[in-house]
Amino acid sequence: MQIDWFPLWLSLRVAAIATLLSICIGLALAYILANRSFRGKEVLDAAVTLPLVLPPTVLGYYLLVAFGREGALGHLYESILGAPLVFTWQAAVVAALFHSAPLLIKSARAALESVDHAYERAGRTLGASELKLFFRVSLPLAWRSILAAIALAFARSLGDFGITIMIAGNIPHRTQTVAVAIFDAVEAGNGQTARILVLVISAITLLILSVANRLGAGFLPVRQAAR
Amino acid sequence: MIQARLQKQFPAGRDSTAFSLDVEFGTSSGVTALFGPSGSGKTLMLDCIAGFVRPDKGRILVDDRILFDVQASIHIAPRHRRCGYVFQNYALFPHMTVRGNLAFAAEMWPRRERHRKIADMLEKFRLKDLAGRKPHQLSGGQKQRCSIARALIGSPKMLLLDEPARGLDAPLRMELYSILRKIREEFQLPIVLVTHSLEECFELAGEMFVMQAGRIMQSGSPSQVCDHPANLEVARVLGIYNILPMEIRTLDPSRNTSVLRYGDFDLIGEYYPGRLRGDRVHIAVSPRQLKAIPKEGKLGPNQIPAELLRVIEAPDTARFEFAGDLAVEVTRVEYERNRYAREWAIEFPVRSLRVL
């Protein structure tokens, strides 16, 4: 029997790009949340957490409105890249980003907060800028758990269904990611395909999670040695 | 020179009581010690000066440069304050070597000067052979030297130390004191030291501030403060006095004497100007000035009988603790001579009784 592997490759590619994006955006947000105190910080934190708890279809609906051809972000996207976003594989990247970034921000914030503030204070009295502090002190001290957070985010971005189906749709060989393809296969009574895809994606995720756990576990001794 | 007026309120939280800091002080070059019990606001003062904590009111001037002023809404960021800070746990970056830690701080200098500055500091603080080590490979004293060197490499305008002797054993403390004395002589900058050791104040400080509950209770040289505690609270914070409630019975200015009632006994003291007969006062007496005497028969003048609870021996003194919170310190020799006495009396020399 012939299995179509396209959804798996698409999912891996989408997850990789989404993870890269969420590293850039997420780490910056995590650092701000961990190190700065400002008005509205907890509101920002709540807003960042929201995608974790909202039904994916709700989030998908918001994104559809915002990125649709009538939405402001949709206009912006189309004017920059010349083509609409919705129902393309790039939309699946946006979906995966919203699905996984909150997790990365949450765990990276915890990782950065667990770095003893004395180091950051010491850095400041020594004249270091915030950027220098982040790259030379905070990040090196928390890199293991941040890497674990990134692995988790990658694993999670492989698995989005709700948001993807809302804004990227289910177009075979264009926007059909693994999660969508499995749903499709089950619907079509194609049990064999569904089973194989389910097993493969489970194995990949399990592997990533065990790597993340390893990394996370290695963090504690590093911190103790620092004391 | 640091001049500051600081006010900061902390409302009561779920697991903390309300606290307010309200101090005004000036320091010259040389060492100023902030002395007081834990929670008296010493570290908070350092954090305000360093810029980690923003006071509600006041201003901070260092060498005529304004670091903080509420009225002019000036709050210079910590990294622009040029303030060397030696943290309680040293806060050496654990992932960098000794040289790396110094280099991190030296980056404020032009590239070609950095190397010389680092070499200079490694030499001065005897870290040359340790330059390649990570902090976890250093002993407590080495970490201490490294963190002081790191704080000084940027030629700060002031040096703040948060309980630098904490966790160091006696020889290392002595070494630290000699390092700090050298810094005091060599670098012309004000040094502010948080401590709760009087020994440290005497070793290093030209001036000490006695802190209690967010206020400066008294300032002056350590010997001034210890000889003349300004009030009951200062005497308590210093922790070197017996503090005894007494009542003034008579005052005789012509003979420069007074009679004080302590429990069931009358004691002769000096004349206390500005006091009235019948005043209930607290008397501070240093345990070193009291005498513990084996009681044989009748009591002499200014002696009272006392019940010995325990003796605490130290290398060259012994401390007798009597009932009623009275402590007397005697030399080893005296202790050896009288140690088997069964009953004791305490003698209060006339000049030892100090009214608070």
The overall pLDDT of chain A, averaged over residues, is 87
Given the structure, what is the number of helices of chain B?
A: 9
User: What's the rounded overall pLDDT mean of chain B?
Assistant: 88
* Inertia-based shape of chain A: globular
Q: Tell me which protein chains meet in the greatest interface and how many residues each side has.
A: A-B, 21 and 29 residues
Oligomer: heterodimer
What is the structural class of chain B?
Answer: alpha+beta
Give the % helix of chain A. Answer: over 70%
User: Which stretches of chain A are poorly predicted, pLDDT < 50 over at least 5 residues?
Assistant: 219-227
Strand content of chain A: under 5%
* Rg from alpha-carbon coordinates of chain B: 25 Å
Helical residues, percent of chain B: 25-40%
Describe the model.
- The complex is a heterodimer of chains A (about 230) and B (about 350).
- By secondary structure, chain A is mainly α.
- In chain A, about 80% of the residues lie in helices and about 0% in strands.
- The longest helix of chain A is centred in the N-terminal third of the chain and has 30 residues, at about 5-35.
- In chain A, α1 (about 5-35) runs antiparallel to α7 (about 130-155) and α2 (about 40-55) crosses α5.
- The radius of gyration of chain A is 20 Å and the shape is globular.
- Chain B is of the alpha+beta class and about 350 residues long.
- Chain B has helices at about 40-50, 100-105, 110-125, 140-150, 170-185, 200-205, 220-225, 230-240, 330-340; strands at about 1-10, 20-25, 30-35, 55-60, 65-70, 75, 85, 160, 190-195, 205-210, 215-220, 240-250, 255-260, 265-270, 280-285, 290-295, 305, 310-315, 315-320, 325-330, 345, 355.
- In chain B, strands 7-8-9-3-10-11 form a 6-stranded mixed β-sheet, with helices on both faces. A 5-stranded antiparallel β-sheet of chain B has the order 2-1-4-5-6, covered by helices on one side. A 5-stranded antiparallel β-sheet of chain B has the order 14-13-12-15-22.
- Chain B is elongated.
- The mean pLDDT of chain B is about 90.
